[in-house]
Amino acid sequence: MMHLIKNEWRKLTLKRSFIVYLITIVALLTFVAFMTQLTNDLDTPVQNQEGEIVESESLPKNTPIYGHNQEGKPFTTVDSTIDYLNEQKENFAENEDALKQINTQLDYFEAYQKADVTPITKGNGTVSLGAFFSSIGDMSMIVNFLAVIAASIIMAAEFGDGTIKLLLTRPYKRSQILLSKYMTVILLSVLLTAFTLVATLIVGAIFFPIQSLMLPGQVSLGATPALISAFQLAGTNLLAMLTYVTISLMISSIFRSQAMAVGLGVGMIFSGSLVNMFIADMIPKYPILKWTIFNLLDINNFATNNPIAGDLSFVQVAIGLLVYIIIIYLVTNFIFKKRDVALT
């Protein structure tokens, strides 16, 4: 079995496409970092109470801005921001959602106040390495896309090239052959995730000012250190990625079509948000819909401090996705063992 996995891994990593995957991740990270730096390299305008920009009061790009009061005037110190947020807590004491958001912001600024460090924000003309790293350079969707392509190729190519018949003549069961390919795709998913973390850290250090990764990375994540935020996002996205590649492997095995497997896999990635908009509206009336795979694939929300429709916990979502993965794989295995490949 290990020999099969090693052979599949060798075939996958020796292809040009494998190097292309890694280059694509680095290239896109560099592009995102460059554009982030470019769009933030501007003076920050100040608005009056009517929302009109006061050109004469525009602040230089190296002036930190941590928020604005009701008149549109910016806060340029951590202490003034904390004071304002504490005032807002009293004003929104009856609004649970607003109070939660205010407390999250307070946690962020109080962490920096305690460390006696000035947060680097867009108001300083850029973002910090921590902010870029904690979001993994917004690369989650792209990494999932690359993993789906690999999962689609690894089985469909055997049918397309006619090598599936030669593969099945080897002294291995069909279930072992399928499992070896699946384990290879899982290993690739883990590798792409780890590579993205390292590449994000390196690219971020080149483009952005460095602050301790044990300080918070984003206001929306409260006091969670940037390092922890990055690994949380990588972990939740890895579970979603494994779901996507399992589906792609099933489609390529059943329909023998790489194009169909890639198309449906990518379609799920890019259409998930749109589908979830409808599901979220229907869940109050039909609670069972909270267990649909599209809703569970929003697991990254736990790493970005956003709720999942249906008020599911992380454990519930993780178990739900694992159940889907197991069921999909078992169906794939059953069909592959029964498949007649004589005409391929």
UniProtKB/TrEMBL annotation:
Instruction: Please provide, alphabetically and separated by semicolons, the GO molecular function terms listed in this UniProt record.
Output: ABC-type transporter activity
Sorted alphabetically, which keywords does the UniProt record give? Membrane, Transmembrane, Transmembrane helix
Q: Which residues cross the membrane?
A: 20-38, 141-161, 182-207, 227-247, 259-279, 314-336
| A GO cellular component entry from the record | plasma membrane
Superkingdom classification of source: Bacteria
Pfam families for this protein: ABC2_membrane_2
Is Iron one of the keywords?
no
Please verify whether the record's keywords include Cytoplasm: no
Under which name does UniProt file this protein?
A: ABC-2 type transport system permease protein
